[in-house]
Amino acid sequence: MIFSKTELGQAALQNRSIALSPRQRSAFIMFDGKRSTEDVLKATAGLGVTTDDVSHLVALGLLADSAAALPQPASSPAESIAAPAPQKDAQAQYSKAYPIAIRLTAALGLRGFRLNLAVEAAGDVARLRDLAPKIKEAVGAEKFKALESALYD
């Protein structure tokens, strides 16, 4: 099933008005109306996200079935052409790299708190790549290899 954020969900994401666990928040951020629940669960498996977490987000009214949502205005032909496969590749890289970056920075405890917040705020693979040197310095080259592979392969 493909979920997207509701208006309540968008508001809760911006102002953090609803308390979510870090893993629920990570999963919630990834629901964009394009990724299936299975894809999000795979991407956040390292964080321990389960179907119960997704069900909780739906029960709170933060997510709704994309098929039930109102149709979005059609994009112009120019926009369709302007969104080639590299964007999908970037999204796939982000989906793969984000949970790894969160796991690595969360494991740093208070020492990595600000870095963890920066990773959460990174909305695309380019921003994660910008943070990569700081993450590598904080966690060490050996632990960084998994993230490096996800970001640059």
Question: How would you describe this structure to a colleague?
Answer:
The chain has 153 residues and is mainly alpha-helical. It folds into two domains: 66 residues; 67 residues, no CATH class. A two-stranded antiparallel sheet has the order 1-2. Helix 6 packs antiparallel against helix 7, helix 6 packs antiparallel against helix 9 and helix 8 runs antiparallel to helix 9. The two termini are 28 Å apart. About 8% of the residues have low confidence.
Layout of secondary structure:
Blueprint: E1 3-5, H1 7-15, H2 22-30, H3 37-43, H4 51-59, E2 63-65, H5 77-82, H6 85-106, H7 113-121, H8 125-139, H9 141-152
Helix pairs in contact: 6-7, 6-8, 6-9, 8-9
Key structural traits:
153 residues; single chain; mainly alpha
Distance between the termini: 28 Å
Overall geometry? globular
User: How many H/I helices?
Assistant: 9
Tell me the total number of β-strands. Answer: 2
In a few lines, what is going on in this structure?
The chain is mainly alpha-helical. It has helices at 7-15, 22-30, 37-43, 51-59, 77-82, 85-106, 113-121, 125-139, 141-152; strands spanning 3-5, 63-65.
